[in-house]
TrEMBL record, chain A:
Residues 1-14 have a biased composition (Basic and acidic residues). Residues 1-32 are annotated as: Disordered. GO terms for molecular function: iron ion binding; oxidoreductase activity. The lineage of its organism: Bacteria, Pseudomonadati, Pseudomonadota, Alphaproteobacteria, Rhodobacterales. It comes from Pseudooceanicola spongiae. This is Molybdopterin-dependent oxidoreductase. It holds the Pfam family Ald_Xan_dh_C. Residues 42-153 form the Aldehyde oxidase/xanthine dehydrogenase a/b hammerhead domain. It comes from the Bacteria.
Automatic annotation (TrEMBL), chain B:
This is Xanthine dehydrogenase family protein subunit M. Pfam families: CO_deh_flav_C (PF03450), FAD_binding_5 (PF00941). It comes from Pseudooceanicola spongiae. One of its GO terms (molecular function) is oxidoreductase activity. Keywords: FAD, Flavoprotein.
From TrEMBL, chain C:
One of its GO terms (molecular function) is metal ion binding. Keywords: 2Fe-2S, Iron, Iron-sulfur, Metal-binding, Oxidoreductase. This is 2Fe-2S iron-sulfur cluster binding domain-containing protein. It holds the Pfam family Fer2. Gene3D superfamilies: 3.10.20.30, [2Fe-2S]-binding domain. Transmembrane segments: none annotated. InterPro entries: 2Fe-2S-bd (IPR002888), 2Fe-2S-bd_dom_sf (IPR036884), 2Fe-2S_ferredoxin-like_sf (IPR036010), 2Fe-2S_ferredoxin-type (IPR001041), 2Fe2S_fd_BS (IPR006058), Aldehyde_Oxdr_Iron-Sulfur (IPR052914), Beta-grasp_dom_sf (IPR012675). Signal peptide: none annotated. SUPFAM superfamilies: 2Fe-2S ferredoxin-like, CO dehydrogenase ISP C-domain like. It comes from Pseudooceanicola spongiae. The keyword Signal does not apply.
Length: 764, 348, 160
């Protein structure tokens, strides 16, 4: 077994080196196999919970079982008396913090609980931490604390929560928007159709529970925190955490080589992270804390429950005259995140009068945060059903109706799209699915077993987020290269693709690029969220590669000994580790030779990935897609099976088709899950999530997942970024929820008013 | 988890002696008990692991044709046993519809019978639950949902017995063999599991120091083997407890029902069987109307215990479908087991 | 304190178990350094901890270590021999049957357990049903099912 490829361990500088696997363990080329595949199939991949420093203490968080009130007492003595329990941290003895957990110095300083007081503001919040020599001892110590509460009646659900009008929703998006005049648009309509849709609280439930291993070490004469934790924004998180600990940002080394799924829940600082770091400092020992599955239902975010109203005005010819999308979204009592669901309808269909609004509803729950396609997923679920209802009202096929309202420019800004191959997606998806000939009327198809069949579709759309990221590429004297970026691979295949982008910029084969990543000590590739990671970190790496090429070019062009000497005006090409004359590619020179002559052992280039401001101002940028689904429903028992799904997506340039397919399939499966399975149920008495596990909170199993066909329509987009890539991580969930809901509607005639769709909702 | 003593007897007398120690609890696969110990809902002082007791491991047919299944036989082993497939295939179907392959490899049949309800308040030691703590409270009174009972429940407890396996067993008159300080006794499974009424924490007739040593499926079950099915309805196609389920067996001659067996799962504190429903079918045409009639009788007195009234009609339809499916089955065929409810409608 | 003697990945292994509360999963991960099996729920609900005990797939999180006297345990670390991957591991690579990889060791062991059970053939519905005790939140199911099917196909044609 080639151990080097299997094991990915931190080097002395706290980075992780990830090489391309030998060919027999995975194909190379554009559709290159995952660089971390071998580590993952052999069990060698070390996730945070797999890291066990010598003599580490086990930390166990004690979670509140009420949602509102205070902790009146805890039996600390009983816990301390249990063999193996080393310390019990409570608000009484928690070491001081340099920044209050509720203080916001930065928009991503989400308010959290780090034992600042005895208040309980939602069920599942941290109220104490027990440290033990073994996990078993600490766990039992936590049980023995047996907290006594003074409970108040929690505010749970739409009716109990308190409305509030936010200025901003999601991450800095306006809460309201209107162009034209909705009232006038509705007055002009021949038909007005209105739907309401409730979506439930959903929890990310990455398979890997949140985990933290904290150890303080002396390095270069000062105390540094080595923090292993799965995290979607290592440099940002290290910096923010340093604020709470009162140390310099560079003294937090956050290592995150393997992330067992994030979906947005591993972007934030939460109490357990701060407390584990504090405990390790106070104890002078490494501390390892792993959240239980139940503890992921509260302090680490969720997708907010929403109540949405969509009003569509339609003219007889099938054109929208008005579209308004009004959202109420549940949120916590102490933080301001509002699910931006209304955004989903603002850039998709060409309604001349277009509006959205948001109301926050404060209750005694953990703060909802971004969860895969935040806003768009819930918003699209409602919008796509509303579109089918409206299509019916004017007797049009759902696809035809969408085509009649195809937006040639962004309907809410009038901007041109940087690229938009949605029409092609509709056509290719419909052809692959066999959409033509779909009967308009509901309940008109059956399969050979007599099951009700339905076909539905939905349009997928997601933003092309881009942040600012930095990267470094070092070309070595032997022609290989090291590409460095604090990148995050939580399953998207980032490591594989990022190495490809560096190689492309540098003009060498990806197999020659060693990626150093997964750590906050490396150049900030920005966060992996909003489907913007490849665009940002990838562009930075590509630019860094080009920077190296630029330096090589300067060396060669000015060196009389180089065959390229003086080729300045005609320019050079960087191909396969060689610089070639653009006007005569037969003349060229290998990088290694240029470097050798210049006496260079290595050559470093840096790059920034950032959207050009003028493009951002000028163009609307989105990934698009069309999703088609078939369901079969037992006519008596109502059991719903999704029998097939087809998704055609346009997301700019497709860097690695293998990774992209996997992201799109995953997104579509999330859509299926949203439509039919996921729902957190809150206990009105305690405010606790009743199904805070994986047996009661359902995500689909293998048996629920049909054959899924995905295809991509390549777009050439010079504006979105230098690489021409758009995101693919989230677009797959949008459109898919609606496609399944609409298929159910087609099969049964039932218009969903809530998700997930249940047996008892169907008119059977 | 509270600390405990672990005992692994090899013989039945050793096991009974271990059970006599204060705070001892029988331990099968642990898939339910260990889970509840982790949540803090169960806090035994000692575990008596019965899976090492040789006498509890066999599946045998006695001279009278009764099938005897040792208490520590694993669910997966039983589901695959040719003896069971011939004798009572719907029990195999029920077993294979339950949990996951991993859990079935671990779980024992006695543990399956004695598994606790999945009412979320039961597993949470901080919630009020009369079934767990013997008190008066029940948080499900405020909030009962899809997983709660629609028949046989009481104000004191709305919990459902979650087992799939027990549903066909009850339909087939299976018995539980118990051994304890007082000796050996045989109790009908349908009596062994009790209704909550006023004392929901008395969930069965297991005596102190007693263990289940075997389950016995009477010889009479064989006659129904060829026309019997277990049908489980749930939204997640697999790895989910039943929303409702039905075990139905019907013997038909000349187009008329001559014998029927029916029990329901997912709707009551124990597998729900109404002999009157079966008797009313006898002599009637083997038609959907007859099956529906039986379903109406079986669900008489059903009432929502919360936001779950839909389960009553769903249960009736499930009964009717299960009978149709059982009736359509070719007698005597060792059949493949379905992956989902969808296979219950024959292809046209 | 009791001494536990069992076989892990083909090698005899003795551990002093001072605490009967230790599950097989925690034993493997915390005391034997075999971190391939993952803890996704610790309650039998996700399959990430799947290992083979005497050839049968079980959830290590709901298995008490003390109960394993004399048992043979196989984890993902014990699958590849010499320089070669187990065919199931290779198939997972070939079909890109993973994303974050956290469920992967459990999926692979479960698939080998399914193969050992020898009942599903390569019928896709049965493979899906047989693998349903292993959740994958990333949505890698299409690749996983394809990988398992391929190995089962080769396996059944090889044994025919
Ligand atoms: C995630 C998950 C999903 C599941 N899904 C399903 C499902 O769909 N359908 C279904 O039917 N079940 C399901 N189950 C439940 C499963 O069937 C039970 O956990 C299992 O059958 C219990 O058997 P065991 O041997 O592991 O019992 P244990 O956990 O060992 O014991 C359970 C109880 O039985 C007692 N006990 C055990 N043996 C004896 C004996 N010989 N004498 C007296 N008392 C004894 C124990 O003291 C304990 O009270 C699921 C379980 C899990 C964890
Ligand atoms: S960790 Fe064992 S099944 Fe989830
Ligand atoms: S690959 Fe991430 S959970 Fe399966």
């Amino acid at each position: 077994m080639p151990d080097d490829f299997r094991k990915i361990t931190p080097d002395a500088d706290h980075g992780f080196s990830i090489a391309a696997p030998p060919r027999r363990f995975g194909t190379g080329g554009q559709s290159a196999a995952r660089r971390d595949g071998l580590a993952k199939v052999t069990g060698a991949a070390r996730y945070t919970a797999d890291v066990s420093p010598a003599k580490a203490l086990h930390g166990v968080i004690v979670s509140a079982r009420i949602a509102r009130g205070r902790v009146a007492a805890m039996n600390v003595a009983a816990a301390m008396a249990h063999p193996g329990v080393v310390e019990v941290m409570t608000p009484q003895n928690r070491p001081p913090l340099a920044q209050h957990p509720d203080e916001k110095r930065h928009p991503f300083n989400f308010r959290h609980e780090a034992l600042q007081d005895d208040r309980v503001r939602y069920a599942g919040q941290a109220i104490a931490m027990v440290l033990g020599d073994s996990l078993e001892a600490a766990t039992e110590g936590a049980r023995l604390l047996a907290p006594v509460y003074e409970a108040e009646v929690p505010r749970i659900g739409f009716d109990a929560a308190e409305p509030w009008t936010p200025q901003m929703v999601g991450f800095f998006a306006p809460a309201t928007h209107e162009i034209g005049n909705i009232a006038k648009g509705l007055a002009d309509a021949d038909v007005v159709s209105e739907i309401t849709m409730d979506t439930p609280a959903q929890f990310h439930n990455a398979m890997e529970p949140h985990a933290i291993v904290a150890e303080w070490v002396q390095e270069d004469g000062r105390a540094r925190l080595l923090l292993d934790t799965p995290n979607q924004g290592p440099v940002m998180t290290a910096g923010l955490l340093a604020g709470y600990l009162g140390i310099a940002a560079e003294d937090v080394v956050l290592r995150t080589p393997f992330i067992g799924g994030g979906f947005g829940s591993k972007l934030m600082i939460y109490g357990a992270m701060v407390l584990t770091a504090l405990a390790a400092r106070a104890q002078g020992r490494a501390v390892k804390t792993v959240l239980t599955r139940a503890q992921m239902y509260g302090p680490v975010g969720h997708r907010a429950g929403t109540r949405q109203k969509l009003t569509l005005g339609v003219a007889r010819d099938g054109r929208l005259t008005a579209l308004s999308h009004d959202v109420q979204a549940l949120t916590s009592s102490f933080e301001d995140f509002v699910e931006p669901a209304g955004r989903a309808s603002q850039h998709l269909y060409a309604a001349p009068n277009l509006a959205m609004s948001h109301i926050g509803l404060r209750g005694d729950i953990g703060t909802p945060l971004a969860m895969r396609a935040p806003g768009e997923a819930s918003g699209s679920a409602a919008l796509e059903v509303a579109m089918d209802v409206a299509a019916d009202a004017v007797g049009l096929d759902p696809l035809e109706f969408r085509l009649r309202n195809y937006a040639e420019v962004d309907p809410s800004t009038g901007q041109a799209f940087s690229s938009k191959a949605l029409r092609e997606c509709y056509a290719q998806g419909a052809a692959a699915f066999g959409w033509a000939g779909r009967p308009l009327a509901a309940r008109s198809m059956r399969d050979r077993r007599g099951r009700l069949l339905g076909w539905g579709m939905g349009t997928a759309q997601y933003l092309c987020t881009m942040y600012r990221g930095e990267a470094r590429v070092i070309l070595r004297g032997d022609g290989s290269a090291v590409a460095e970026v604090a990148g995050v691979d939580m399953g998207q295949g980032a490591w594989t693709i990022l190495a490809q982008t560096a190689a492309e910029g540098l003009g060498i084969s990806p197999e020659k690029v060693l990626l150093r990543s997964g750590s906050s000590v490396l150049p900030d590739g920005s966060v992996a969220g909003g489907s913007g990671h490849t665009a940002t970190a990838g562009t930075a790496l590509s630019e860094a590669g080009k920077d190296v090429v630029k330096q090589l070019t300067a060396l060669a062009l000015n060196d009389p000994k180089s065959p390229l000497f003086g080729a300045g005006n005609s320019g050079v090409l960087a191909v396969e580790g060689r610089l070639l004359r653009a006007d005569n590619p037969a003349v060229g020179e290998a990088y290694v030779d240029i470097m050798a002559r210049a006496g260079l052992r290595d050559l470093t280039g840096t790059g920034v990935g950032e959207r050009a401001a003028e493009n951002a101002e000028k163009y609307a940028m989105f990934s698009h897609g069309a999703v088609f689904a078939e369901v079969a429903i037992d006519p008596d028992l109502g059991q719903i099976l999704v029998t097939r799904m087809v998704g055609a997506f346009a997301a700019g340039r497709i860097l690695n088709p293998r990774m992209v397919q996997s992201q799109l399939e995953g997104g579509m499966i999330w859509g299926l899950s949203f439509a039919l399975h996921e729902e957190a149920v809150f206990d009105p008495t305690s405010g606790k999530v009743l199904n805070d596990d994986l047996a009661g909170y359902h995500i689909p199993v293998h048996a629920d997942i049909p054959a899924i066909q995905t295809m991509t329509v390549e777009e050439i987009d010079p504006f979105v970024n230098a690489l021409g890539v758009k995101g693919v991580g989230e677009v797959g969930i949008t459109g898919s929820v609606g496609a399944i809901a609409n298929a159910i509607r087609h099969a049964t005639g039932y218009t969903p008013t809530k998700f997930p769709i249940r047996i008892e909702d169907l008119p059977l | 988890m509270k600390a405990f003593q672990y005992l692994n007897p090899k013989t039945l007398p050793e096991a009974l002696a271990a059970m006599a120690l204060p705070g001892s609890v029988a331990y099968g696969g642990g898939t339910n008990l260990l889970d509840l110990m982790k949540t803090g809902a169960a806090t035994p002082d000692g575990l008596v692991d019965l899976t090492g007791v040789q006498a509890l491991q066999s599946i045998t047919l006695d001279d009278a044709g009764n099938l005897r299944i040792g208490a520590a036989v694993r669910n997966a082993t039983l589901a695959r046993a040719p003896l069971l497939r011939a004798h009572a295939p719907m029990v195999a179907e029920a077993l294979l519809s339950g949990a996951s392959a991993q859990i079935r490899n671990m779980a024992t049949v006695a543990g399956n019978v004695l598994q606790e309800t999945r009412c979320p308040y039961f597993a949470n030691p901080d919630a009020a639950c009369a079934r767990r703590d013997g008190g008066q409270g029940c948080d499900a009174r405020v909030h009962a949902g899809r997983e709660h009972a629609v028949i046989g429940w009481s104000e004191a407890c709305r919990a459902v017995h979650p087992s799939d396996m027990c549903v066909p067993l009850v339909a087939l008159d299976a018995k539980v063999e118990l051994s304890g300080p007082e000796g050996v006794r045989l109790v009908a499974l349908s009596d062994f599991l009790t209704l909550p009424e006023e004392t929901p924490n008395r969930r069965n007739l297991l005596g102190s120091g007693e263990i289940i040593t075997a389950l016995v499926i009477p010889a009479a079950a064989t006659a129904l083997a060829g026309q019997s099915r277990y049908l489980k309805v749930r939204e997640r196609t697999s790895f989910a407890f039943a929303l409702v389920s039905a075990a139905a067996a019907v013997q038909i001659a000349g187009g008329k029902v001559i014998r029927a067996r029916l029990a329901l799962g997912g709707i009551a504190p124990k597998p729900w069987r109404v002999p009157e429903a079966e008797e009313a079918m006898v002599g009637r045409a083997a038609t959907p109307e007859t099956y529906r009639m039986a379903a109406e009788i079986a669900l008489q007195g059903a009432a929502p215990s919360g936001d779950n009234g839909f389960k009553i009609e769903l249960a009736k339809r499930t009964v009717a479908r299960a009978f149709e499916w059982a009736a359509a089955d070719v007698p005597g065929l060792g059949r493949d087991l379905p992956a989902s409810v969808f296979d219950t409608i024959p292809e046209a | 304190m009791s001494g536990l003697e069992f076989v892990v990945n083909g090698a005899a292994c003795g551990v002093a178990l001072e605490d009967p509360r230790v599950t097989l999963l925690d034993l493997l991960r915390d005391r034997l350094g075999l971190t391939g099996a993952k803890k996704g729920c610790d309650r039998g609900q996700c399959g990430a901890c799947t290992v083979l005990v005497n050839g049968a797939r079980v959830n290590a999180c709901l298995t008490l270590a003390v109960a394993l006297q004399g048992a043979e345990v196989t984890t993902v670390e014990g699958l590849s021999e010499g320089g070669n991957l187990h065919p199931m591991q290779q198939a997972f690579l070939d079909h890109d049957a993973l994303q974050c990889g956290f469920c992967t060791p459990g999926q692979i062991l479960s698939a080998i357990g399914l193969m050992n059970e020898g009942e599903s053939g390569d019928d896709v519905a049965r493979v899906r049903e047989g693998m349903s005790g292993n959740l994958c939140r990333c949505g890698a199911q299409p690749g996983i099912v394809a990988a398992v099917q391929e190995v089962l196909q080769a396996h059944s044609s090889g044994s025919r």
